[in-house]
Amino acid sequence: MASVDINGITISYECSGDPAGPAVLLNMGLALQLISWPYEFVDGLVQRGYRVIRYDNRDAGLSSQLDHLGAPNLWLAYLRHLFGWRQRAAYTLNDMAGDAVGLLDALGVAAAHIVGVSMGGMVSQILAARYPARTLSLTSIMSSSGRPGLPGPTPAARRILLRRTPSAHHRARVVEQMVDTFRTIGSPAFPMPEQLLRQMVGEAVARNVNGDGVARQLLAIAASGDRSALLHDIRCPSLVIHGDADPLVPCACGIDTARQIPGARLEVIEGMGHDMPPAVVGRLLTLLEQHLRSNMAG
């Protein structure tokens, strides 16, 4: 696994496919790692001739774990959110977008197709709005504009979002909690096979566990607030994909995101929740391929 120093931290990354092919930068979501992108999804893009760039966000995977910044109190942060008070975060999504641009710089990539899931979609939105010269196209999947008034997670999804991750010393407990999380937020019409789910979770836990890092990422989302005005500045071709059964980031958030981005195309997948199960990967690849191929001028 390769790594590079960016903005005073280390970012771990992996490149796949033809180095001369059009670059696709994949931004993963809260608490997840570059290995969380389904193999079939990455391989599908590689087979189509793209240079696929995946990376671990700060505080995730093998990138820098910023434990010296402290462990946020998520329940206090939630209360501050309810009352509309300002959040105090160690870093924001803007900083994470800067990490993505720094990675493109380090790899000598002038511009890329930007694809983000959940929190990664938020980072991708910021990148597209603030770094237009580096963005060939934007694809925001199961994400949100952060606009006040949008529906939030279901009670069950909120509980799993705010609960603390067990210590890395208790790996079996971490695995069970993550399995429970994916079952809660997953796609009701496309359930993840149990064996595949446990294999995916086991690989992630073996690679890294950092509960405080997850909390800092979550606080970064809360502190970054409303991006709707920023989304109005996006001028690149944009695709928004969302599941109509998403319990963590409801479909209304995806609909709103598409409305905020000028000319954005919206695709709603029936029965899809807040995950990328095997039964959905083919549909995602088809939508993404159509979007990228129609915007290859860059």
Automatic annotation (TrEMBL):
<keyword id="KW-0378">Hydrolase</keyword>
<dbReference type="InterPro" id="IPR050471">
    <property type="entry name" value="AB_hydrolase"/>
</dbReference>
<protein>
    <submittedName>
        <fullName>Alpha/beta fold hydrolase</fullName>
    </submittedName>
</protein>
<dbReference type="Pfam" id="PF00561">
    <property type="entry name" value="Abhydrolase_1"/>
</dbReference>
<feature type="domain" description="AB hydrolase-1">
    <location>
        <begin position="22"/>
        <end position="275"/>
    </location>
</feature>
<dbReference type="InterPro" id="IPR029058">
    <property type="entry name" value="AB_hydrolase_fold"/>
</dbReference>
<dbReference type="GO" id="GO:0004806">
    <property type="term" value="F:triacylglycerol lipase activity"/>
</dbReference>
<dbReference type="GO" id="GO:0046503">
    <property type="term" value="P:glycerolipid catabolic process"/>
</dbReference>
<dbReference type="InterPro" id="IPR000073">
    <property type="entry name" value="AB_hydrolase_1"/>
</dbReference>
